[in-house]
Here is the input.
Amino acid sequence: MDNYSTIAAISTPLGKGGIGIIKISGQQAIPIAASIFRKSKAQKNASDPQQMFFESHRLYYGHIVDPENGSVVDEVLLAVMKAPRSYTREDVVEINSHSGAVVLTRILELVLKMGARLAEPGEFTKRAFLNGRIDLTQAEGVIDIINAKTEKSLKVAGSQLKGDVGRAIGAVRDSLLGILAEMEATIDFPEEVNEKPPGDFCVKLLQKEVIEPLESLLAGYRAGRLYREGLRLAVVGRPNVGKSSLVNRMLQKDRIIVTDIPGTTRDLIEEAVDIHGIPAVIADTAGLHQTNDPVETIGIQKTKEYVRTCDLVLFMVDATKPITEQDDFVYRTVQEQRTILVINKWDLVSRNFYYPVPDRWHMPRIKTSALYNQGISELKDLIARDFIGNGSAGDHNGVVPNLRHKQNIEQSIHAVQSALNGLRNNQSEELIVIDLKEAVRALDEILGLSASEEIIDQIFSRFCIGK
Ligand SMILES: Nc1nc2c(ncn2[C@@H]2O[C@H](COP(=O)(O)OP(=O)(O)OP(=O)(O)O)[C@@H](O)[C@H]2O)c(=O)[nH]1
Ligand SMILES: [Mg+2]
Here is the structure.
């Protein structure tokens, strides 16, 4: 993929809608648009007979016309943004047309025929990165904004797009470069440095200005991971305890069939739910028990597999019945997982009822009535608290790196630790410098300063076409 040709794509979803946008970026963007656009009379300029001149950051009203036969394709607004004041820092033209798959495709075809190339996924944003308008972390923020599923996920992504991660990493990198310069000076001009600067001073500086801020970024990663990646929950229990009823309550709609017949749910059903801002997927499952029914057996197998990979199991029992052998069978299936015991149908027992649970079932428990919608909000509180501590981490004023950043931050910390060991053991400066350079490299990769083509391509391939 070359980074010089003029690229074009449909930037809005291909469906019926008020408007659709075809975006063009590159040196030929304006001449290409001009060749298929007929300005309205009011906007025609007598001193520009070809009508090829467009002011930057202005909207032009007119028509898209097929230059081959002069037929009008659509009535549009043209937005022209000249380099460098545009998303890609190149000349950009956006054609705001009516939105319908046929009309959008037709206009795009004309644009391609006049010399543009179809953009790859994320190629507009990639150009913004290659042309230095944003760093790699900000480009990733763009994808996260598009993919955000809850308000809080959006907030995390927005902070990244603003450049918060990049700035935090950049500050550490500057400190590292400063320390590195000092070290290199002692190697190159040992006679000019009266006191050996490594030693205690460098150790303290590396601790305070490098290790501490990087550790705090890792803490931000742990706190924010859930908002970015979401949580997978499974509701598990023997037949008829009220699993589907609970899932319906969590979703606040009657999504799943509930009956008093045991074995009603036979397949695994996943639905998206927002738990205090954490995007989650909750799975209702087939009641777990020993059975010869072939359909149920498959459902139970699916449940077991799901349990192995989910983040949290809601293990449900029926308050009106003492723990049965079947419940214990379910327990054995989920015991390796992080689990909350949900004691349901609490409306059918007296308020002060004591429900005995085997001693070895060490897990937080909660009483609910899925039928009467009681205890559901307490359950959500418990889930959120279990995963984000006291909740403050969720409001993170701090910066939230993603998994890629986290891995590089760890590499950087590792390299600095090795330099610190070297300093404490009076190792030669040359070896310490190698470690510090490795620490800088790991941070450069986060910002995209030294990221390999492969990493960059991998990041942009997650984008949709037209962004
Ligand atoms: N009284 C009372 N009844 C409940 C409660 N929760 C569920 N039920 C009833 O229990 C029966 C079974 O509910 P479901 O939600 O279908 O139970 P399930 O665990 O999904 O059952 P299977 O899909 O068969 O495994 C239905 O008649 C529900 O109305 C509750 O909290 N209190
Ligand atoms: Mg069910």
User: Anything to note?
Assistant: Residues 243-244, 264-265, 284 surround magnesium ion (ligand 2) (CB under 6 Å). Residues 205 and 451 are 27 Å apart (CA to CA). The chain is about 45% helix and 15% strand. The domain at 140-226+402-460 is CATH 1.20.120.430 (Four Helix Bundle (Hemerythrin (Met), subunit A)).
